[in-house]
Design goal:
By secondary structure, the protein is an all-alpha fold. Helix content is 57%, strand content 0%. The relative contact order is 0.07. Bound molecules: zinc ion.
Length: 222
């Protein structure tokens, strides 16, 4: 009889609950290689610090336990999320824009076709030289990752690209990005946390239209 059918047999014959649990505990002994739904539950309980729960199931209040387990799973996930962000230097700016874990309102107000541009800007994955110069054969020391569009000897980072670069001044006017008059890091950070639909949509259109001519300049330079 397979282990799975054995478990069902024990349960269907109304073996007392304690006996049933002891029986399936035997089937997950460490000296027996056995992976099934029971061992998966035990693994989960161990993972989240509830190792004793399985053996004391009769003394546990189900409602309280479910709430405790749910809270522990959520807290653990959030801790791992913060730790993962801390471990990537490319997300140094993202940490500032998103101090708390949670759903982002901009996902609902920016049209699907444009949303990706704002997301890429927030997580610093637009193909700007501050990022493309980080790796492999294209490595460039950080202090000389200059903007090749305006040739101002400014580092081409996200702030320069969105707010400063003179090459895209006309495009900023087209999309009424007056927000960037007298640009500052504070204004830029507020923009990245904005929920103003018109402002974000125009920003996304700006990014979308600027990437192609920018790539053209880089191709001609190389
Ligand atoms: Zn520039």
């Amino acid at each position: 009889m397979s282990r799975h059918r054995h478990v069902r047999w024990l349960y269907s014959h109304q073996v007392r609950q304690v006996g049933f649990l002891r029986a399936i505990r035997l089937m997950t002994r460490s000296d027996i290689i056995c992976k099934n739904w029971v061992s998966n539950i035990i693994d989960l309980l161990n993972m989240y610090g509830f190792s004793e729960t399985f053996d004391n199931v009769l003394t546990i209040n189900n409602n309280i336990f479910v709430n405790q387990f749910k809270t522990r799973v959520i807290d653990t996930y959030k801790s791992e999320w913060f730790a993962s962000i801390e471990s990537y230097s490319v997300l140094d700016m993202y940490k500032i824009y998103k101090p708390l874990h949670g759903y982002e309102f901009y996902l609902d107000i920016i049209p699907r076709s444009l949303r990706l541009f704002f997301t890429k800007l927030r997580v610093s994955v637009l193909p700007l030289r501050i990022q493309t110069g980080r790796h492999g054969r294209n490595y460039i020391p950080r202090n000389i990752r200059y903007c090749l569009c305006c040739r101002s000897l400014d580092i081409e980072d996200e702030f320069h690209f969105i707010c400063i670069c003179s090459y895209f001044s006309e495009l900023r006017r087209k999309y009424q990005m007056f927000y960037y008059t007298n640009p500052s890091a504070v204004k830029y950070h507020l923009l990245l946390r904005s929920n103003n639909k018109a402002e974000l949509v125009n920003l996304c259109k700006f990014i979308n239209e600027s990437l192609s001519p920018r790539n053209q300049i880089l191709n001609n330079t190389n």
